[in-house]
Specification:
Blueprint lengths: L9 H38 L5 H11 L9 H30 L32
């Protein structure tokens, strides 16, 4: 970003970039949770129809095991896994989308010291008696 923009525009571009990174993370964390719950809650209600959505949400991820008998625990774990799979699919789709969008950004070579033949300059090694300050 600093190599493409004018120096006076860099702080604004940095702030806008950080804003959209945080906004995207916030929005898609909520979307991921919604997808998880929309897959998990109906699956759990199939196992035990007497459970309400409020009971399940109040129990939390660790307390939900206490809502079903031990013999129905594999069904509960399968419903939870289906919800997690769906939320991971959303995460992978968003990562792929951001990667594709990132490819559209201008790529600029930042190397400044090139010889006319296209090879980079190399620094000569320091002599044993000589100290080099970088």
């Amino acid at each position: 970003m600093q190599g493409v923009l004018k120096l006076r525009d860099v702080p604004i571009a940095t702030a806008v970039t950080l804003f959209y990174q945080i906004l995207g993370a916030t929005i898609f964390a909520a979307i991921g949770q919604t997808v998880l719950l929309n897959r998990f809650l109906p699956g759990l209600q199939e196992i035990n129809p007497s459970l309400t959505i409020t009971d399940i949400i109040q129990a939390g991820a660790t307390g939900v095991r206490n809502l079903v008998p031990v013999d129905q625990l594999p069904g509960l774990l399968a419903a939870y896994a289906k919800g997690l799979d769906a939320s991971f699919i959303v995460a992978v789709a968003m990562a792929a989308t951001s990667t594709l969008l990132g490819l559209g950004i201008e790529w600029k070579n930042m190397k400044k010291n090139k010889k006319p033949n296209g090879k980079s300059k190399s620094l000569k090694p320091a002599e044993p008696n000589e100290s080099r300050v970088l």
